[in-house]
Amino acid sequence: MTALSVNLNKVALLRNARDGDAPSVIDAALTVIGAGAEGITVHPRPDQRHIRPTDVLALAELLQDHPGVEFNIEGNPFAGPRANGYPGFDALIEQARPQQATLVPDSDQQLTSDHGFDLSGNNQALAAKIRHYQAQGSRVSLFMDPDPAQITLAQRLGADRIELYTGPFAEVVGRAGIDDAHSRASLALYQAAASHAVGIGLGVNAGHDLDLDNLSLFRNIAEVAEVSIGHALIARALDQGLAATVRAFKQALNP
After folding, report:
1. Contacting residues for 138 by C-beta, under 8 A, at least 6 apart
2. Secondary structure, 3-state, the chain
3. Confidence band for 63, pLDDT divided at 50, 70 and 90
4. CA 111 remoteness from chain centre
5. Which residues are catalytic?
6. Which residues lie below 8 Å from residue 168, measured CB to CB, with a gap of 6+?
7. What's the CA gap between 212 and 131, in Å, rounded?
């Protein structure tokens, strides 16, 4: 079974468009938990464009009452404190103590995460970050492209899991369709990467631009333990309702 972790960034983005607390990130978390989501994901960025540090701590407190629900915090491990009140990624992990810390090589200027780590250089600083978060009680996942050689380097650095960046897969399927040979070839690339990761002792997560259409193909990769989905799920929820949409995504993952 593949677990569904719902990314709540877009709920916070909508809230931040106006002064106030609506829509409530906490209420959204309770809704998706009630609909069966196995995890809550947030990606607090230094510019605080959506999820804020206060949301991270409020969710950490909420999930103490839901011990079966995983809290996953994503971000650049080298993002330090900012003058706007962002305390730095280290501080968020130390204070919230999530079950999983997903490390992403994004810059302040990126609209969204669009590539995995390149681990071909000196990664002593990243290895130290991995050990630090593990010491806080977090499983550490590295955001990676489906490249077996790079995935091997992630394992050597001490990561517990990888999260496969699925943007390219989603782009191919969206352009060519589920049954096209190009889509099948992209799936095979991700299948090989996931099999390699499991073979060297890493767990496998996946995320980015997964939706109800491409999940019908991607779910065939049995090695994937967890997917994190935000944009497509929240966008559909505007039409279908949040609880119904979570149930639809769970059915798409595990029919």
Report:
1. 73, 93, 97, 98, 99, 100, 101
2. CCEEEEECHHHHHHHHCCCCCCCCHHHHHHHHHHCCCCEEEECCCCCCCCCCHHHHHHHHHHHCCCCCCEEEEEECCCCCCCCCCCCCHHHHHHHHCCCEEEECCCCCCCCCCCCCCCCCCCCHHHHHHHHHHHHCCCEEEEEECCCHHHHHHHHHHCCCEEEEECHHHHHHHHHHCCCCHHHHHHHHHHHHHHHHHHHCCCEEEEECCCCCCCHHHHCCCCCEEEEEECHHHHHHHHHHCHHHHHHHHHHHHCC
3. very high
4. 15
5. 43, 74, 208
6. 186
7. 36
Which residue matches tokens 């607090």?
44
Sequence-ordered list of residues with C-beta below 8 angstroms from that of 110, at least 6 positions apart, any chain: none
Domain range summary for the chain, segments of one domain joined by + = 3-253
Name 100's bridge partners: 72, 139
Residues 6+ apart with CB under 8 A from 116: 105, 142, 143, 144, 145, 147, 150, 164, 165
pLDDT score, position 113: 65
Q: Give the fold, CATH level 3, of 3-253.
A: TIM Barrel (3.20.20)
CB contact set of 102 (below 8 Å; sequence gap of 6+) = 41, 72, 73, 74, 75, 140, 141, 142, 143, 163, 205, 228
pTM, to two decimals = 0.94
**Residue 111 confidence class, pLDDT cut points 50, 70, 90:** low
